[in-house]
Write a structure and sequence with these properties.
By secondary structure, this protein is of the alpha/beta class. The protein has 16 helices and 14 strands. The protein has helices spanning 3-10, 24-33, 47-61, 74-85, 110-125, 139-153, 184-195, 206-218, 235-245, 257-262, 265-273, 303-310, 321-333, 359-383, 388-407, 412-416, and strands spanning 15-17, 41-43, 66-70, 94-99, 128-133, 158-163, 200-202, 225-227, 251-256, 278-284, 287-288, 294-295, 314-318, 338-343.
Length: 419
Amino acid sequence: MKVESLVQIIGADFYTGVPDSQLKALCNYLMNTYGIDKKHHIIAANEGNCTALAAGYYLATRKIPVVYMQNSGEGNIINPVASLLNDKVYAIPMIFIVGWRGEPGIHDEPQHVFQGEITQKLLEDIGIHTFVIRNNTPEDDVVKAMDEFRKILDKGKNVAFIVGKNGLSYDGNVSYLNNNIMIREEIIQHIVKVADEDPIICTTGKASRELFETRVANGQSHKYDFLTVGSMGHSSSIALGIALNKTETKVWCIDGDGAILMHMGAMAVIGANSPDNLIHVVINNGAHETVGGMPTVAASMDMVGVAKSCGYSNAVCVENFAELDRELTEAKKRKGLTLIEVKCSIGARNDLGRPTTTAIENKINFMKETVDFYNNIIDIAEKVNYDKNKLYILKVKKKLYEVYYNVEEKDWNSAKNNI
């Protein structure tokens, strides 16, 4: 159905959300109609943020707001929905519009499959009444659904329109651009060149796809890379966990501005632990480009200042490849937690591919590289008569990785006895 019709049927005048490709029609409509407007449309950092913001709007105006998001964001709304909105707490009514990635029976990427299976049930389990809009749903059915929804909303409860593939359409166009000169895929190529065989943890979306294709173009193995294909905003925390336990090597995290905003508290935890082998590269194009290009607030924020306040010992911003290469090289050589913000243009190749390995294959190859790494370190340590106690610890770490890598689908409890 036309997005204009859905907006008219709902009758709300305040929208807040996190952009989604499945809801591109709605996102572009809102940008063309309102842009970013404090009274009508705000793009928030994450879905829980949207829900709380919308609750504040209701408390101030008594008008019912709309929150839009991809179904992957359902996890982020569970707490505010259950402990703030629910009719057993504050009974704050709200309309959700949820893009249904991974809908059963429709092919999608692996990170969306399980989320797609539980999308409708999860919403209903937390007290949100649902109606599905598909590409063949009659407009009259949506009108009837909204009539029923109004009765539910009047009781202080919550409702959701779940939008399937091509469920909404919009004829308008929006162009998302900035004035930055560096292209993200080329930025990633420069990072790969300097990182060499160091592990790279890469954020979700087009960045991981470009990293995968960079390895293919270079004829390199993918074993050095962990592609965070889902779980937006958590790549830096994964990188922290690895850096704290692989202190003998540099660990690189390729992050995005939308991702870092989504769970920015991670930066404070990284800074507090301050691993001197972690290099955090934030590619900032000020946009949710992977899902359409809608803006983030990162274009106008002081990312370097935030990093320094969080405890990063080194933090810089670069705007051209000469600066980027210099800072990547310096970060590789020195000890100290580092953040490099890289100003980036919006856009990607039209023929950009997707990883041809599965998520499980990615995990196995990445963990096997860790085993190989410890083998190399132990070999060097034995040759130079390394401290026996420290050598023993290295061997235990290596064995832990080795057992987990080899067991995969086998019984973990019995595998532990082999250590």
